[in-house]
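pinging the channel bc i need a second pair of eyes. not urgent but kinda urgent?? the chain im working w is below, pasted from the shared doc
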Amino acid sequence: MKLYKKDSAFYGKVFTIAIPIALQSLISIGVNMLDTIMVGSLGDHALSATSLANSFISIYHIFCMGLGMGASVLVSRYWGMKNSNSNDDSIVGESANAGHALKQTVALMLRLALALAAIFAILTLVIPGALMKMYTPEAEIIRLGSIYFKWSVVTYFFLGSSLVSTIVLRSVGEVRFPLFVSIGAFFVNLGANYTFIFGKFGAPRMEIAGAALGTLIARIFEAVCILTYLLIIDKRIGFRIKDLFMNTGSLIGEYIRISIPVLISDAILAIGSNSVSMVIGRLGATFVSANAITAVTQQLSTVVIQGVSQAGAIVTGQTLGMGDRKKTMDQGWLFLGLGIALGTVSALFIIIAKNPVIRSFKDVSDEARAIAQQLMWAISLVIVFQATNSIMTKGVLRGGGDTKVLMLADNIFLWAVSIPLGILAGFVFKLSPFWIYVCLKSDQIIKTFWCVIRLQSGKWIKKITTGNN
């Protein structure tokens, strides 16, 4: 059991995958900030309407992430099988079917993403006002949000297909092309928003509708680039348009067993995160403002962690696919060491950045700033545990196929521990903001110790078949 060893090939492979993913996350943060600034110039109602409408669209985004990451567990394993040089007869037999199973996985994933897109598109088209009323009672915000929804109906199809296809491409080692596409989409979104929100270059001034149209154009650009690459250029997976209609019956059982728990887990965790936000929202306006001040710092401090988490799932799946269980266990401990190291670096980043960040918010109250200071210290503590268990749960253990157990663990720790503790800390014991935040994130701390025990047991390594035996 070694948390670190001199293995340049391992670390090189991990960061070759992780850094482009982290850069894509940074680009996404940048896009969201630009959208906020541009729409914010239209007034509070427009900003609120866009933000709340995107809260509903983000639910679909979360579902697609779950679909893609669930499929990634299978794709990386099959990719490892396909490229295995093992002499083990059982692995050799599976490797012969791995290429076909890989295509079946992609077909099932795309079908589900498009089916979900159709459901969300119908809801957005038919009951936009009712959807907005879930978030706000204000008539003007509902009206503006409904306009935004009108222009977003077909966005789901482009968003979903490009997102899940990007995750699949990463799973077989293609990480640079999606990054280049994201960079291109950033500038397309910037240009389209500027043109249609404000009516530049002879275009009509569309305001909030222009924001939705700008996002749609960027999503179309992304989807056309990614799907062209996947369906025409890519040679690794070899998936083509005709494969969308292939018979996937033999793999459905394995797909449901491994992939669907990831989808369910991510969806329920998203609901849980919203519940945490609801608890924070009821702690008072100053607490909410203080939490908002810390938001960007939190996002920036975790982008590399998210990249390494996805790399952990991919590397683990590929290594297991090649039949090397011992190497997989050794790599698991190295990933644990990486989590501790990256968490520590992130904590130092937050401690260094906290004062300049808080000072940059000149219009907030002194009380909000004082609370933000406490929250920053709490975040710097929690991030060490969050980084470690994220790389384990979203990476190594998920890559090993332990998706059903992870689904249970994630949600038990969140719903049975952190949310009740946060409510008690905030509303019953009236603890300081530091301890309220630590209690709300206590699942991250407990889950870290659980991950070490689970890793040590080896029970997280599950057999995955190609469905043809």
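so Residues 59 and 271 are 9 Å apart (CA to CA). and The chain has two domains: 7-258, 260-469. — does that match what u expected or am i reading it wrong
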